[in-house]
Amino acid sequence: MKRKQTLTFKLITGGTAAVLLPLLVVGYFSVTRASEGLAKLSEEQAVHLARNFSEMVEIVLSEEIKLTRELSVGNATIKAVTKAEGSGIENAAEEIGKLDMKLANAMKELGEHYETILTTDAAGIVFADARGGKFKGISTADREYFQIAKRGQSNVSEPVVSKLSGNPVVPVAAPVYSSETGNFAGTVITVLKLEFLSEKITSVRIGKTGYPYILDKKGLCIAHPDKDIVFKTDINTLKGMEEVAKAVSEGETGVRSYLFRGKRKIAGYAPVKINGWYVVVTKDEDEFMTAAYAIRKVILIVTGISLTLTLFAVVWLARSISRPILRVIEGLTEGAVQVSSAAQEVSSGGQSLAENASEQAASMEETSATLEQISAMSQETAKLTRGAEILMTENIVKSGQSLKALVELTLKMSQIEADSDRVRQIIRTIDDIAFQTNLLALNAAVEAARAGEAGSGFAVVADEVRNLALHTAAAARSTQDLLDANILRVSEATLSIRNINDDFEGIIESATTMGEKTSSITGASRDQASSIAQISKAVNEVEQVTQSMAAGAEESAAAAEELLAQAEEMKQFVNDLSAIVGSKTYNYEKTDSNAGRQES
Predict the structure, then answer these.
(1) Phi-psi region of 207 (alpha: psi -120 to 50; beta: other; left: phi over 0)
(2) Angstrom distance (rounded) from CA 254 to CA 492
(3) Which of 296, 335, 385, 420 could cross-link with 487 by S-S, CB 3.0 to 4.6 Å?
(4) Residue 255 in contact with residue 46, Cβ under 8 Å?
């Protein structure tokens, strides 16, 4: 059987894992984030340095163009060039001599960073220089810088090999115009030694492995700390620098990673706007990650120290935990034995109590049945009196409604009497109108008779009006007679309704008194039924309590048996716990009423 791992071993293993895993996760993310942040910072620094160097180169070249322009507009220069254009170089010897002296003095002032200063005619032939005539007669007509100056633009040439010294130089050319014709008459060329510019840039070191270098606009290296690379290395042909070469050819400013001579490098690059050169600042990628490696080393050291301290702390904690547990195990062992003995006694007493409670529950059940019968009869009596009360209440309500209807009918009959008087007045008015109409018709007939034959038609109309008035008067009298008869009948009906109304009021009063007495009987019956129900409920509760006691006693006996079984199971748990902690185990032997134990 496989041996169980002890609690001490689990605590040590778990505590170590709980400390080690977070340290590893934090360390991994710290190194990753630090590497990314340092790489980004270094890239930004490379671009920033490249821009600074490109601006410095641009400032130097701008100053060279400015110097060359100042020489091209000097009096000695313009006089010599104008004379040579108009009279020929042979006839301008005096002016050319003065110009040679001026150029030589300028060379002394400028220092040794220049190879020479030249002046050419319109055909590009050098006729004056600062080196005592060493460069006279050399043609610059095939040089790009001369062609650009001829078009009227001062410019910085691409680095070229000097025709006299064979050294790489950077010519700066500016046009010279004739003072007589105003046309292009020649150029002034300051020849800057490339090594001067190269030393300014390549002497700078960036960290241990970083340095800047310069490319011309075609990608050829023209300044580099390694002299063997200058004028011999074109980045367009180098494997691993394709992305840098593409970015340079497109005029971008940025940073790229590339492979050079088997080493990964980071290059920041920026253009020199004045002539299209590029300044590149490069550094080994490993140097970028030096800080990240240092952080990783610190994290590993901290992890090791933390792990060692954790092991000591966990061992101490495991021991401090296991010792109290051992004491608890011994206490549990003693408790298990005592619980087993007590459970047997509780089981015996519970069974006796269950038998007595069962007998009492049977007696309470008979009493409860009798009370339930009495309660049912009381509820039936209350139900009957409640029905009589409801019928009486309905009778009172309906009588009230009938009384209300009789009152409304009486009011309407009184209104009919009042309206009949108004109708009588209207009929009397109609009778008066018919009488007046009859008089008018008689007058009209008299007037028609006086008129003779001319009024005979009018007499007919007057006669018809008189007949109509008579009929109207007769109809009004008939209506008056009928109305008087109706008014008499309405008065008699009103009197009868008032008598009925008085009788209904007496009926309602008697019904109300009867309803109150019935309600009192109903309330008393309800109270009696409620009291009996409460008594029955109390008896039922006593019965339930008795049954609960019986059930509880049975459950107590069962629980005691269960407790006894659990005590035996707890003994086994104690042995398992002892095995986990790594302590001694116990063997238990049952007796008749107590349990003993033997240590092993």
Answers:
(1) left
(2) 123
(3) 420
(4) yes
- Could you give the angle at the alpha carbon of 19 between the alpha carbons of 15 and 22, nearest 5°? 140
| Strand pairing report for 586-590 and 595-599 | antiparallel
Last residue of a domain, one of 288, 306, 339: 288
Contact 38, 289 (CB under 8 A): yes
The residue range of the domain holding 342 is 321-581
Taking each helix axis from N to C end, the angle separating 7-72 and 194-202, rounded to the nearest 10 degrees, works out to 150
Would you call 458 exposed, middle or buried from its count of C-beta atoms within 10 A (0-12, 13-18, 19+)? middle
Tell me, yes or no, whether 314 lies in a domain. Answer: no
* Cα(112)–Cα(208) distance, integer angstroms: 31
pLDDT of the residue at 98: 92
For residue 452, the domain's CATH number is 1.10.287.950
Count: domains in the chain: 2
Say how far apart CA 293 and CA 35 lie, in whole Å.
8
| Bridge partner list, 267 | 256, 282
For the stretch 299-335, pLDDT in tens is: 778 777 877 887 777 777 767 776 777 677 677 777 7
Tokens of 506: 């007496």
Asked if 411 and 501 touch (Cβ cutoff 8 Å), the reply is no
Residues with Cβ within 8 Å of residue 50, at least 6 apart in sequence: 212, 253, 268, 269, 270, 279, 280, 281
pLDDT at 595: 44
> To which residue do tokens 């003072």 refer?
179
Nearest alpha-carbon partner for 46 in 292, 282, 284: 282
Q: 277 in helix, strand or coil? A: strand
Query: Is 587 in a helix, a strand, or coil?
Result: strand
User: Looking at the chain, how many residues does it have?
Assistant: 600
Under 8 Å CB-to-CB from 386, ≥6 apart: which residues? 522, 525, 526
pLDDT of residue 600: 44
Q: What is the pLDDT of residue 581?
A: 63
**DSSP three-state, residue 208:** coil
Same domain, 171 and 106: yes
Helix (H, G, I), strand (E, B) or coil at 223: strand
> Phi and psi at residue 240, in whole multiples of 5°?
100, -15
Do residues 388 and 245 both lie within one domain?
no
pTM: 0.48
Q: Report yes or no: 269 and 278 within 8 Å, Cβ to Cβ.
A: yes
Q: In Å, how far from its chain's centre is CA 53?
A: 46
Question: Is the same domain home to 49 and 104?
Answer: yes
Under 8 Å between Cβ of 221 and 231: yes
**Which pair of tokens denotes residue 188?**
């002034």
Lookup: tokens for 301: 């050291």
- Which pair of tokens denotes residue 91? 């006839």
Which domain-ending residue is among 235, 269, 288?
288
Residue of 99, 66, 72 lying closest to 185 (CA atoms): 72
- Distance between CA atoms of 491 and 494, rounded to whole angstroms? 5
- Is residue 597 assigned to a domain? no
Q: How many Å apart are CA 84 and CA 97, to the nearest integer?
A: 12
pLDDT at 448: 81
| Parts of the chain with a pLDDT under 50 | 1, 590-595, 599-600
Q: Which residues, at least 6 apart from 114, have a Cβ–Cβ distance to it below 8 Å?
A: 107, 130, 190, 191, 192, 193
**Does residue 280 share a domain with residue 379?**
no
CA angle (216 as vertex; 212, 222 as ends), nearest 5? 55
